[in-house]
Amino acid sequence: MQRIHPFGTLKARMTIIVCALVFLSGILLSIYAVNIVERDMTRLVGDREYALLSSAAAQMEQDLQSKRAVLRVTAEGMRAAQVARPAAVRRHLEQIPSLDQQFFNTVAIDAKGTLMSSLSGGAAAGQTTVAAREYFQQTVATRRGLLSRPLRSALSGKPVVLLTEPVFNAAGTLQFVLAASIDLSQADFFRHLDRLTPGRHGYMFVVTTEGVILHHPDARRLLRNVADEEGGIVPSTRQALAGMNGWVLAKNKAGVDSLIGYRRLATADWIVGIVYPTAEAFAPLVAMRQRALLRTGIAAAVAGLLGLFAIVVLLRPLETLRRQVASIRRGDAGIDIIDLARRDEVGALSRAIHALTEERARAEAESARLASTDSLTGLCNRRMMECELDKALMRLNRTRTGIGVAFLDIDHFKQINDSHGHAAGDAVLVEFARRLKLAVRGTDLVARYAGDEFVVVFEGLYAVDELPALGGKIVEAMHVPFDVIAGGLPVTTSVGLAFGGADSTRESLLKCADEALYVAKAAGRNGFFVDGVVAKACGVEH
Ligand SMILES: Nc1nc2c(ncn2[C@@H]2O[C@H](COP(=O)(O)OP(=O)(O)OP(=O)(O)O)[C@@H](O)[C@H]2O)c(=O)[nH]1
Fold this sequence. Notes:
Its main location: membrane. This is Diguanylate cyclase. The chain has helices at residues 10-80, 86-94, 97-102, 134-142, 191-195, 235-241, 278-281, 283-330, 345-372, 382-399, 413-420, 422-439, 467-477, 506-522; strands at residues 105-110, 115-118, 151-152, 159-168, 174-183, 203-208, 213-215, 246-251, 257-264, 270-277, 402-410, 445-450, 453-461, 493-500, 527-530, 538-539. With 542 residues, the chain is α+β, with helices and mostly antiparallel strands. Strands 12-13-11-14-15-16 form a 6-stranded mixed β-sheet, with helices on both faces. It has a 5-stranded antiparallel β-sheet with strand order 2-1-5-4-3. Helix 14 (506-522) links the parallel strand 14 and strand 15 (527-530). The two termini are 68 Å apart. The chain binds guanosine-5'-triphosphate.
């Protein structure tokens, strides 16, 4: 039997396909589920960070408001007290402790832009002028306080932003301008932001809407404009400068994938920002994805094993059927061992195999019959006769009896054909065969040898003396005219008979019978002749 490669079996292929499908669908499902969860979680984390950012922005806004309020109240007090001279101004400022708490420094600048007094000392009053500074000019022009652009302080050299407040006299003439600075390099003002710094590598920053950096963990970047920096503005910051509030997933300036949020203040042209590297922000998500994929893989492997087990169990009847067919082929068992009662595909296959085997057996029997039968007369053919004669000769050893062989030929059969046609000749052959069978015992073997020649094998004879009676019976059986043409057709036969024992062969017996037939023919036909018994040769006349 042809050996099947282990991976070529239906079982192996089904298992591989089932495992692959389970694994693939498991992985795809888990990727799909993880993606949905990740999308929601990302939104959740982004919204949470943005909420923190908004609260930090609100806090910063409140800080600025309270600083403005302190400065405005100070200016109001000075206007009400008609404070005008530098010394009086300085004294007044020194009496307000919240100025010191809220600001890095507070200065008074006269209407011409000359420094009148500075709370923290520094440059000498009367010698420093800020007339050219934008914040001073705008305050004078608008007669209102403002929040300046970030700048480097002329007094301290520090990066600062200034809050200004004009002080008028009773007639409404500008007396001087109060300018209070916030030191951008001091963490104090941005403490709310820094408290909210996300993770280990995240950071908060503040830029003006023009892109100037007010607060950044890298202090060297303070007062730089993001547009002037190497690499230019990252796209998300460009959007924020254009007015976008919200968060995005994008690369930061260093090229790190990050969650980046922006929140613009309502009362200042400032934008508070947050940068949170995604590797850190979504670390739990990454861990969750790995866990999910690992568990899916394990589940798929278990499902595959269960699938294999199920396939092995389900295909067992097929294996049983294969074994049954193999043992039927070897001849160890009959066709009946196949279970035909199953109600599944294996049952259908069993029934098909059973039916096929039976059909084949029938066909073999039929072809064996055809191979051993003469199709016209239905008698055994020559081949079958020779085979049976051989067997009969072999049996003689046991039975210790003799055997007789009769060789027959229809007399002048050619004339019958020629005179009455081939069909009539066939009909004569059929009738001749029928009569011949009736003339001998049912146990005798009657065969058509060839054309109009027939052979009869008689078993169980004891002596050659028995043959004349048999020959006579045969010749006699043909004497009634054959009913194959109107009025009947006289048909006679000549018979040669031979007797043999255990030492005879098929060839010798047939040869003797044929020779005896020749004698019978020569003697005038319509009679028989027994080989070796010349005295008993006799003609039978009609
Ligand atoms: N109709 C028919 N004729 C057959 C068949 N087989 C052989 N024959 C014919 O049978 C004839 C046999 O003739 P022969 O045996 O030569 O001689 P015969 O006419 O019988 O003369 P004798 O044998 O000498 O009496 C031939 O003409 C064959 O063609 C057959 O199946 N059907």
